[in-house]
Amino acid sequence: MKALHTSAEDLRYYVDQVIDSTAENISSMLQDVRALRHTEIDYITGYLLKRARAHGVAVPENARLYDLVKRKESEYERVGTGLPRPW
């Protein structure tokens, strides 16, 4: 993997542009959750967690997000099984 070098200001400018241009979008992951489908969390955040662990980098907020989405997925796996819902 090649490292990219950019200034914090350039990165912030880019992030702000993406936020502005996608503010009205509904993410595919949210669409999946609303439709009770499995998300791509394993391929996105799961991969990030694996790489972070390999490099000894702590990413607690990403791990928390991953756990929350996986918990939500497990809730709708219970639909129709007769198992009690967690809420």
TrEMBL record:
SUPFAM superfamilies: 6-phosphogluconate dehydrogenase C-terminal domain-like. GO terms for molecular function: 2-dehydropantoate 2-reductase activity; NADP binding. The keyword Iron-sulfur does not apply. InterPro entries: 6-PGluconate_DH-like_C_sf, 6PGD_dom2, Ketopantoate_reductase, KPA_reductase. It is an enzyme of class 1 (oxidoreductase). Transmembrane segments: none annotated. The keyword NADP applies. GO terms for cellular component: cytoplasm. Residues 5-73 form the Ketopantoate reductase C-terminal domain. Its EC number is 1.1.1.169. This is 2-dehydropantoate 2-reductase. It comes from Enterobacter cancerogenus.
